[in-house]
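Quiz preparation item.
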């Protein structure tokens, strides 16, 4: 109870405190992404920091825990980042070659398709980062088209914000980590509900069995 009161006893309330913590996490993610190939590891550490922050409010030692998670996620995250950057570089080269070709028919359609493919690469890697933990390590994310579409919207809004004002990039990273954690929790919650429904016993709506028909007779006989 004392912890809850301490979190809410702020000039702007608990939500503003969470917003400030997310912005701080975004700065840490940006710092961990300076080598480019390390951005998935930085995003994974940022998602882990958001996951610790959301249930209990901001906790001390955010930077120290972020650094520990970043080091733990770096071996596999560097590989994921290298593959993702290679895919983005390939798509960018294709777009540049198409633009240098001159008046290419339906160039806008090709550019839109390449932009969509690049966004899909980013969304896939962000989902991998949000599913990472010190125990599960790096793995393919589960199939969740709805969640991926929601995260794609967050990536699009983040890209527009950075395009309009580049200085927002470190701050947008934290908001993107928060969106990734929210989508991952929604997916895991839906999976748990589905598993619970599948394993729940069926209601006895069918015809009574012989065993259920014998019970009233036995009760009458004993009476």
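Solution:
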């Amino acid at each position: 109870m004392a912890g809850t009161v301490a979190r809410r006893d702020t000039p702007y309330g608990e939500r503003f405190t969470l917003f400030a913590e997310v912005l701080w996490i975004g700065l840490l993610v940006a710092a961990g992404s300076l080598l480019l190939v390390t951005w998935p590891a930085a995003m994974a550490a940022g998602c882990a920091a958001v996951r610790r922050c959301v249930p209990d409010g901001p906790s001390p030692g955010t930077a120290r825990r972020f650094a520990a998670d970043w080091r733990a996620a770096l071996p596999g995250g560097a590989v994921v980042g290298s593959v993702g950057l290679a895919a983005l570089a390939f798509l960018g080269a294709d777009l540049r070659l198409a633009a240098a070709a001159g008046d290419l028919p339906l160039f806008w359609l090709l550019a839109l398709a390449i932009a969509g493919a690049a966004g899909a690469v980013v969304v896939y890697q962000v989902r991998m980062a949000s599913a990472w933990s010190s125990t599960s390590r790096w793995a393919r994310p589960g199939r969740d088209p709805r969640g991926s579409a929601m995260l794609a919207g967050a990536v699009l809004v983040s890209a527009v914000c950075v395009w309009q004002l580049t200085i927002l990039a470190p701050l947008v990273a934290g908001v993107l980590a928060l969106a990734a954690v929210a989508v991952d929790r929604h997916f895991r919650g839906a999976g748990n509900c589905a598993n619970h429904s599948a394993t729940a016993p069926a209601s006895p709506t069918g015809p009574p069995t012989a065993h259920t028909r014998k019970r009233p007779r036995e009760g009458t006989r004993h009476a």
